[in-house]
Design a protein that fits this description.
With 141 residues, the chain is mainly alpha-helical. Helix 1 runs antiparallel to helix 2 and helix 1 packs antiparallel against helix 3.
C-alpha cells in the first residue's frame, strides 16, 4: 500500500466521499436495526415474564390478603368490613407505588439504540477530521 501523498482530483474526492458516506449510512442503519431488534426482543421477553408472574401471584396474593383480614378479625376483634378496608387500603397504596415505579422504567430510553447513536456521533467526528485534514493538505500543496 502506497502511503505517500498524491494529489487527487476534486471529482475523485467527491466520488469517494459519496461512496464512503453511502456505505457508512447503510452499515449504521443495519446496526440500528440489529440493536433495536435485540432491545425489542428483550422487552418482549420481560413482558412475557411479567404476565406469567402476575398470573401466578394474583391468586396467592388474594389468599394472603384474606388471611390478613382474618387475623385482624380474630386477634384484634375488628369487624370484617373494617379489617378488609385496612388491608385493602395498604395493598392499594403499595400497588400504586409499584405501578408508578414500573411506568417510570418503561420509558423510551430503555429501547433507544444508544450504541448506534454513539457510533454515528463518532463517525461524524472522524468524517469532520478527515475533511479538515484533506482541506489542510490541499491548502499546503
Amino acid at each position: 500500500m502506497d502511503t505517500s501523498y498524491r494529489p487527487r482530483a476534486v471529482s475523485e474526492i467527491v466520488s469517494d466521499l459519496f461512496l464512503q458516506t453511502t456505505t457508512l449510512v447503510r452499515k449504521e442503519v443495519q446496526l440500528a436495526r440489529a440493536e433495536m431488534s435485540e432491545n425489542v426482543t428483550t422487552v418482549g421477553r420481560g413482558l412475557g415474564m411479567i404476565v406469567g408472574g402476575a398470573v401466578l401471584l394474583i391468586p396467592g396474593l388474594v389468599i394472603l390478603l384474606q388471611a390478613a383480614v382474618s387475623v385482624l378479625v380474630e386477634q384484634y376483634g375488628m369487624t370484617t368490613a373494617l379489617s378488609a378496608l385496612i388491608v385493602g387500603g395498604v395493598v392499594l397504596v403499595l400497588g400504586l407505588i409499584l405501578l408508578l415505579i414500573g411506568v417510570n422504567r418503561m420509558k423510551i430510553e430503555t429501547i433507544m439504540p444508544n450504541r448506534t447513536v454513539h457510533q454515528i456521533q463518532r463517525d461524524a467526528s472522524v468524517a469532520n477530521k478527515q475533511v479538515s485534514q484533506d482541506h489542510e493538505q490541499r491548502r499546503a500543496a
